[in-house]
Amino acid sequence: MNSKSIRQKEIAEKTGFSINTVSLALKGSPRISEETRSIIMECAKQLNYIPNVVARSLVQKKTNTIGIILTELMNPILTETAQEIEQILKKSGYNMMLMITNSSPEQEAEALDVLVSRQVDGILMYPVFTANFAKIKLLRDNKFPIILLAGGDYELPTDAVYVNRREGAYKAATHFIQAGHKRIGFLGGGNYSDKEKQNGYFAALQDNHIPFDPSLVGRVQSDGYDAGYASIEELYKNAMPTAVICTRDYIALGAMRWCRERGIRIPEELSFIGFDDTAAASFAEIPLTSVKYDVKAVTEKATELLFQRIDEKDKSVAMSIQKISIQPRLVIRQS
User: Fold this and answer.
1) Mind listing the pLDDT tens digit for each residue in 5-42?
2) Exposed end of the chain (fewer CB within 10 Å): N or C?
3) 3-class SS at 252?
4) CA separation for the pair 95, 86 (Å, rounded)
5) HTH lacI-type domain: from which residue to which, for each copy (predicted)?
């Protein structure tokens, strides 16, 4: 039995779980519950257990390659972010290895494993859900340079540089409230980015003493303009909002198309605010009010922090966690 198997057996004995469960938890498998994974990871940390791929990365020579993990390519902001990061890395003598998770926890876990096994010098990533937080934390605990490009509302002891999406949604909802709206809808998905935005929406309602109506929260089932087009009908007919916050510009633009085809006047009968302030928002038939995502600020600060972490790792310097929040701006147009 090799040393890795021996250490996993020791973890299994101490935690009471099977070796198979321990192995799956250490690999970040979504088949293992968060509670079980947390117990196993804590025991592994106490025993100073380091998985092989992480151990190899800790003694590597620099490869001058940075891994980038994106949730999707459909979102033009993420594409622009990757392009900006690539330009910065090129100027600094680094190559980029891009991985797309398609908002899948399983694909995200695989992307992390692939990048670490390829011995990249560091990782910049948009996390999907909580399933891989233990894996991310394990990397950080072993001084692997990893920076999250999101992370406002959840507690994860890892460096993060992010646009404050919660504050953006708060500003959007407050703008509608100040315009006299009381039935404000919210249309988005279920990932962490959208949950942060939803929390900002809730906070604005609460601070302005507007009762929360769950029927005003709609869920999109996919990405793209068609997601907004398909999702607005149920929200509009069931809840009759007078304004809607959409978690992506393209969701708002798809919803606005549905409204125009049915003679619902924008903004007189139904107003919209999107997120990201993409080019499509300003060139739409009815220009869309949107919460701006400052790509340059995120990419510059995130790469700067990553280079600092790589330098600290090379010099065996202690790393204190940093969370850098970038304040969003509401770009007001005619929607």
Assistant:
1) 557 888 888 888 988 888 888 777 778 888 888 888 88
2) N
3) helix
4) 7
5) 6-60
Q: Give residues with Cβ within 8 angstroms of 258, minimum separation 6.
A: 228, 229, 232, 233
Rounded (10°) angle between helices 19-26 and 3-15: 110
SS (H, E, C) 219-245: ECCCCCHHHHHHHHHHHHHHHCCCEEE
* Structural Rg of the chain based on CA atoms: 22
- Residue in the structure block whose two tokens are 């708060």: 170
pLDDT of residue 1: 40
CA distance 231 to 25: 36
Mean pLDDT of the chain: 87
Running DSSP on this structure, what letter comes out for residue 60?
P
Most confidently modeled range among 169-173, 190-194, 216-220: 169-173
Q: Based on the domain organization, do 157 and 92 belong to the same domain?
A: yes
Which pLDDT belongs to residue 21? 87
Higher pLDDT, 246 or 152: 246
Q: Is residue 52 part of a domain?
A: no
What is the extent of the structural domain holding 299?
A: 63-163+295-328
Q: Provide the whole-model pTM.
A: 0.76
